[in-house]
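User: Please fill in residues for this 161-position structure.
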């Protein structure tokens, strides 16, 4: 005979799942969180040095504005407002975004130097000589007067005047 399944007893003293008093700053569980003290009286996140450091690190890792804001527990609109209000923060974010471009440029250069012909072509077309010798599209600049000559059309046979 099989035994009937028994129900497990749940202790009444166990706490229900309650939200933590901490807000996650990053998607990485090893990162630190900000405490309730980092919130202002309305519950909004304050722009603290710790938060700014997390934002900059998120941008260096390639996060979009939306992902960087989410990682810090703020809305994307808040991030845009902070950038408008704080030119220093805006410059820090732009520098972080430029640093990831340099990482890709370095990888491209390594690939081009290693014999990858597609990488070589791409590098030369985009970072080539100042004269734009390697560009697909050549740009020409004309100086001086440009006059249009009128009345020098070829005459058709049989249409002579």
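Assistant: Residues filled in for all 161 positions:
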């Amino acid at each position: 005979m099989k035994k009937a399944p028994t129900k497990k007893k749940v202790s009444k003293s166990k706490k229900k799942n309650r939200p933590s008093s901490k807000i996650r700053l990053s998607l990485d569980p090893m990162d630190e969180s900000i405490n309730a003290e980092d919130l202002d009286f309305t519950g909004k996140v304050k722009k603290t040095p710790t938060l700014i450091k997390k934002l900059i690190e998120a941008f260096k890792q390639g996060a979009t504005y939306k992902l960087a804001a989410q990682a810090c527990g703020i809305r994307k609109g808040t991030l845009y407002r902070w950038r408008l209000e704080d030119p220093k923060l805006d410059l820090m974010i732009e520098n972080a975004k430029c640093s990831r471009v340099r990482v890709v440029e370095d990888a491209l250069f390594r690939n081009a130097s290693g014999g990858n012909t597609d990488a070589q072509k791409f590098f030369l077309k985009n970072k080539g000589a100042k004269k734009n010798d390697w560009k697909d599209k050549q740009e020409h600049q004309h100086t001086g007067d440009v006059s249009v000559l009128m009345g020098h059309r070829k005459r058709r046979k049989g249409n002579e005047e």
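For context: The chain has a mean pLDDT of 75.
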